[in-house]
Predict the 3D structure of the following.
Amino acid sequence: MKTKEELKKYFENGDIPKQEEFWEWQESYWHKDEKLPLEKVDYDFSKKADVNASNLSPQDAQLWKNKIETPTSIQAPQLNGNILTVFYTGENGIQQSKSVDLSTLATNNIHIEKAEYDAAQNIITITQNDGSAFHINLSEFSIIPTTNADGSLTLTQEGQDKVVLKKVALTGSYNDLSDKPSYTGNDKLQDVINRGNGTNNPIIFQPSEGRAGEINFSSKTYSLWFGNMNPDHTGTYGVGIGYNALPKLTTGQSDIAIGGFAGANLTTGDWNTMVGVNSGSLLTTGSYNVMVGSEAGKNSTTALGCTYVGDEAGVKNIDGKYNTTLGIGSGYWLTHGVQNTFLGAFAGQNYGKVTTSGAWGSNTFIGYNAASTTHAMGVWGDNNVVIGCNAPLGGSTFNKLVIESNPVARRHDFVTPLIGGDFAARTLDFDAVVSAKRTPLADSTYTKVAVLNDGNVFGYKNLSDLTDFVPLTGTTIGKPLTGAIQYKGNDTTGINSFGFHSSHSDTEKAGFDIEDDGALTPYMYWMGAQDIKTTLRVYHNDVTVGSNSPNFSGLKGGQYYGDFYQKESYIQKQYADKQHSYTTKEERTGGTWINKKPVYKKTLFLDQIPRTGELPIDKIFEDVEVIVSNQMFTEWYAIDVAFAGNQWMAKAFITLENRKVRFELAGVPDYDYSLINSFALTLEYTKKNDSPVY
């Protein structure tokens, strides 16, 4: 068995005790369910007295007998004023006496006149000065009456109370058997009230629990309570219902607390209404607050003019002012904010959670979980208006308008809201097709035209500015045509895509002169419907495409032709740009692998990784034969990194196979890889069932 000092060494600071060490500690003490062996008790049990006194000596037996004063007979009592003395003989043969002051029984000028003892019936008759009398039958008792602390008289037989005599406030006589009111049933509280009775004292339920269940009313402050509200408060018109509701109230007035620990620390605050368990339980001097719901405004101490409605609404607030939150968990982390309005279950619940200040204000959030984000950075800032279910807002955000709705919460930086704006910059943005109903027909009073720039920002131009156009009558002097003209008309086949008037003869095939010097070279010809692909040709041996203008942008087409690309084609810039863009759809890059098979490209983007860290990709990238190249980018804020490639600092690794991607954080077994925020993978690859391209 280890000593106490040896056991202590198992539990020193920094130690991690083992199972065997805990067991050694437990085996060193007696459990309360175990019987303590007598040999382990430091006491001589040979000196104890057996219950049947079989081991008492005659001397000890006499000593025990002398200690026991059980009366065997009672002699005549004596009354000296209001002092009643009764004589009796104990079993030890010694005469004993007991005196009782009966004056404690006298009320309303009634006092004891005399006491008479009838030895034949063993009855004491006590006569009062008003002529009334009551009797004590001593034959029923073996112990002398005793006076209690409250002035009552108790007669006891064999340890059990038999009769208790108490003083009563009656005029004329005591309420003895001769004039006791008679009732056919139990006397109910309503019966007592109907007789015009009331009480100036509190009513306490379960007195063993103290004042926890006290019903009381203060005629000085006109406060009322059912619980243990501070009875010495001086503030007026208080109401406290519930255990520890307003137990510390002093000068605070017009405060209402309903629920266990509601307003448990309120002292001088005024005009507060707290309903629900722990609602406003830490409020001390704050005033004009309404906190309704379990733990609503629980941590508020000096809050002013705040309204928190809903379980845990505004629960973290400390000294905020003029905040209104409505809904379970709304404004949960708003610690020091002012002038905020959050309406909806969990509206703004994480607002200010990741900041140390929490002193953000003038925000308006409306909707379930409004102003939410799944990003770890959370959200904080001033003067924002957010409307909609799970409407997103995140980071350090000021003066923003967001109108958006979605069934689930999303990362704010991945969402473009339907309507966004900035109150400081005075901007308003729409991610929508905008249409206007009931648009009036413009007349001569309309002098401006709405236009958009390349960034889709609205502006206007005066109608008077729109004069640079070609009228039906042709160009005017000094304003020649400087651009190209394409004509299609009602033709949908593309055959008659060009048509120009020319003064040249039919033998010149109705061409037109590219130059304006009258020369006929080079020509553009209309070839007709027989060969649409050669509808437009340039015939000249030394045609040069170029311009002296620094803004010349080369040959251009009116639409995108990249889908029909062939080996001999001149490609458009748009086609070249497409080869360097990324999409979640599978596309051909236009290139081939060394086996002449075409190369494909596709991008996978995820913001949720399986907990195991294994991500199947064979259904996303189907029929992959050779992975030509891969690009990866991972956002992993749980380890505070965002990196490109398949490893980071020899700590985080990403393994790529044709069938799956596997994540690994070195040295951390059973890691929850769903904490990865996002993962992007771009593959270039060939496919098994493709044929070579020659």
In short: The chain has five helices and 41 strands. Confidence is low (pLDDT under 50) at residues 167-180, 494-543. The radius of gyration is 50 Å.
